[in-house]
Amino acid sequence: MFLKASIDYGLRMLLYLAKHDRVCSSKEISENMLIPRDYLIQLAQIERHAGLIESRPGKNGGYIISKPANEITLLEILNAINNGEDEMEEPKHDIASARHTNDEVTHMLDIVTSSYAAFLDSITLDMLSKCFDGTVNAEAYLADRLKEESQRLTQNLATA
Fold first, then answer.
1. Cα-Cα-Cα-Cα dihedral sign, residues 111, 113, 114, 119
2. Among 56, 69, 68, 71, which Cα is nearest to 24's?
């Protein structure tokens, strides 16, 4: 699976800000995270609008993360960046063939989509920072997180 450049760069920016926990200039972030500066500034507007970062004007201005990294989820980041871009055109469906959609397949895809969203919502920027800086083994750490989230979802289904 490939990430769009906007997701990649937006996540890099947030990881940098989470790691440094101070006001960082666009130039500093751009140079250290290899993000084109003009693109970074556009993404910063999107992330600021979503409440993920704050901007500070002036000579020593720049960007700072707006809340603790353990309160920002990957789902929140993805939604913020995806919603900040131009809307993609909806796929066109043939109405006659759409009537024949199998309800079971639709239900299964709904479960997969909600499970995917729940998993992404369970991963915080703080967790990603630990993976990014090598504090933890990323594959094992995220696999454990997926396992925990799967168990939680299974328990929720059993009680529903």
1. positive
2. 56
Secondary structure (H, E, C), the chain: CCCCHHHHHHHHHHHHHHHHCCCECHHHHHHHHCCCHHHHHHHHHHHHHCCCEEEECCCCCEEEECCCHHHCEHHHHHHHHHHCCCCCCCCCCCHHHHCCCCHHHHHHHHHHHHHHHHHHHHCEHHHHHHHHCCCCCHHHHHHHHHHHHHHHHHHHHHHC
Q: With cut-offs at 50, 70 and 90, classify the pLDDT of residue 89.
A: very low
What tens digit of pLDDT does each residue of 15-31 get? 999 999 999 999 999 99
pTM of the full predicted structure? Answer: 0.80
